[in-house]
């Protein structure tokens, strides 16, 4: 078996590592000496050797720039994610603000509608739309506890919508004017013609039984007439239009596609006169023409003369 020779590399390696450590320690101590001569020597050393090692510093500089870029990208990414979260939050707030603005506009529109000062009202929120192919009605969140009475008129911020038909403790049903069972007397302005508005389950109910149709033109204003005590008079309903079938129809002033807040009008019954004796009645009318002559006196019989 061959015998290995003496290993000279290990002692030499140890000596070189020791010398390198001593050189580095001496350089460190030299660099920490605070004296004018040492400072001058350090300046000369930097001016002589550092510019020649610029090629060796280029990779280090590039690596440091890459690290700085990665750190900057990480910060930008975090800021971008935070901005996205804030943007989504702002979009939610914007949607809520738009809805509140729409509700506020509708409530202001209801307050601006001019009605009879003797009529008071209360506002309800539409809970559900139960409109079907055979019935047009909605539910609102006011009922018997709020003093709602069956038959009261209901309007939105623009015009008449319908009437109360069914009252619960906390909710009420409103039958719309477009319901096929709805029949209300109306008046066309400015001609003053009376008519009957008939719901036919469409957005343009018909105007029937017009006294003089030649006096009614498209664009005329239609209001409630108050006949029969169904609705209070002079409440705006809509405008007259000419249907495709040639019949006169009504374009509703109320926005039936967006019924959110409804205004229930409190209708008070008219005052009844109970004590008729307190009235001053006109005199009874007499006969028309000259007075009739008096009847002649009866002649006595012959037996009476004897």
Features:
six-stranded antiparallel β-sheet; 306 residues; 4 helices; 33% helix; alpha+beta; 22% strand; six-stranded antiparallel β-barrel; rod-shaped
What is the end-to-end distance? 208 Å
Mind telling me the C-alpha Rg? 51 Å
Instruction: Give me the count of strands.
Output: 12
Quaternary: single chain
SSE pattern: HHHEEEEEEEEEEEEH
Content of β-strand: 15-25%
| Count of DSSP-assigned helices | 4
Bin the helical content.
25-40%
Structural class, by secondary structure, is alpha+beta
Largest sheet, spatial ordering of strands: 1-2-5-4-3-12
Shape call:
rod-shaped
Average pLDDT, rounded to a whole number, is 77
Largest pleated sheet: 6 strands, antiparallel, barrel
Notes on the protein architecture:
This protein has four helices and twelve strands; from the N terminus they run H-H-H-E-E-E-E-E-E-E-E-E-E-E-E-H. The longest helix has 59 residues. With 306 residues, it is an alpha+beta fold. The protein has a six-stranded antiparallel barrel with strand order 1-2-5-4-3-12. It has a six-stranded antiparallel beta sheet with strand order 8-7-6-9-10-11, with no helix packed on it. The model has no long low-confidence stretch (mean pLDDT 77). The chain is rod-shaped, with a radius of gyration of 51 Å.
